[in-house]
Amino acid sequence: MLRHARKFLVAAAALAAFAAPTTATTAQAQTGYGPYVALGDSYAAGAGVPGQSAGLCLRSDRNYGHLVAAALSSPAYTDVTCAAAKVKHLTTAQYDAFLRVNDPQLDALRPDTGLVTLGIGGNDLGVTDLGVGDVIGVCIAGAVVNPFGTPCKDVYADGHWEWRDWSFQWVYGEDSLRARIAGAAPQLADMLRKIHAKSPNAKVLLVGYPAVLPEDGRSCIGRQPVTPGDVDYLRGVLGELNAMLARTAAANGATYVDTLSPTRGHDACSDDRWVEGALPGSPAVPFHPNAAGERAMAGAVLKALGR
Known about the structure:
The protein has helices at 2-19, 23-31, 42-45, 64-72, 132-145, 151-156, 176-198, 228-251, 260-263, 291-304; strands at 36-40, 52-53, 59-60, 77-79, 94-95, 100-102, 115-119, 160-164, 167-171, 203-207, 255-257. The protein is α/β, with parallel strands linked by helices and 307 residues long.
């Protein structure tokens, strides 16, 4: 009789173990995803949005990654986003002029990672450690000396003055910003393949950039220190960047997340800003999403996940 009781207890324990999985397994079953890793640059980090951590990485606890992790009740969440990160910083350490800022971001991936969000590419428009910040600086400085022209476009379109039809005319050459976008595409494709290799079961989302500037450059007059012509030019560059991200995601097993559409009308020149301007009204790095912008981007990610 004692022998039969022992057999019953063993069987009951086995049944209980099968019927009651671990907390992590339960959480994964509830969300459909395992541990979540957030990768990317200042737009993904929520630069300037309280509360900040990770030093120069300017990582916010209200960035879209944190909001998505909370909405999904992720069993584990790792945020290695960092301001000024370029595509290369996914596999190489990030430095500023003096010190190491962030380890290679892909080091955070594990074989059991179930969800990855990646927001990157904008800083590859710049040539310095400031990333896209040096482009913003050039465009603002140009507007001071040439407020009615397209000084930013004139610099980055690599044009030159040429004598034509009995007058000097500005002749445009290759657009250097669009060339940098094209140059970043194969690097980003390689990084997506590396993500799949390190975390083969992960759902990978490549997150695009929000509506930083309006569709009509004239609406920025008196609001932001960028000329209307340059607003139109830069909006086109941003559109090309998002298009590159969408194409690269589709070709490399990732899902592109459109954050431009849900933020349209809430750009840096609008009355209801979700992206701050040169003089932020809400805590955020200039020309970056504020807390409302990060919430909108989180909503776009969750929509892409069917939530």
